[in-house]
Amino acid sequence: MYVNGQEITIKNKISLNEFLKNEGYDAQRTAVEKNGVIIPKKSFETEMLSDNDKLEIVCFVGGG
């Protein structure tokens, strides 16, 4: 699997939400594109990842 252009290996199928949590992302402040399609936040729990996927993850930060 590729995440933001870097290859990583996942051993088992995992939900997008679980992956984000394991990698330290705050799902509420994150936008994810999987294989060219933006995944709605409401689907993070059910969207399953596999080793062939390509993710682009963007985190939003506050400030001024």
Shape: globular
The number of helices is: 1
Approximate helicity band: 10-25%
Overall pLDDT level: 93
C-alpha end-to-end distance: 35 Å
Work out the strand percent. Answer: 25-35%
Major sheet, described briefly?
5 strands, mixed
Which radius of gyration do the C-alpha atoms yield?
Answer: 11 Å
Taking strands numbered 1, 2, ... along the chain, how are they ordered across the largest sheet? 2-1-7-4-5
Number of strands: 7
Class inferred from helices and paired strands: mainly beta
Order of helices and strands: EEEHEEEE
* Stretches with pLDDT under 50, minimum 5 residues: none
Task: Describe the protein in words.
The protein is mainly β. Helices cover 11% and strands 34% of the residues. The strands form 2 sheets. Strands 2-1-7-4-5 form a 5-stranded mixed beta sheet, with no helix packed on it. The protein has a two-stranded antiparallel sheet with strand order 3-6. The protein is globular.
Concise summary:
With 64 residues, the chain is mainly beta. It is built from 1 helix and 7 strands.
Map the helices and strands.
Elements lengths: L1 E2 L2 E2 L6 E2 H7 L7 E5 L2 E3 L8 E2 L4 E6 L5
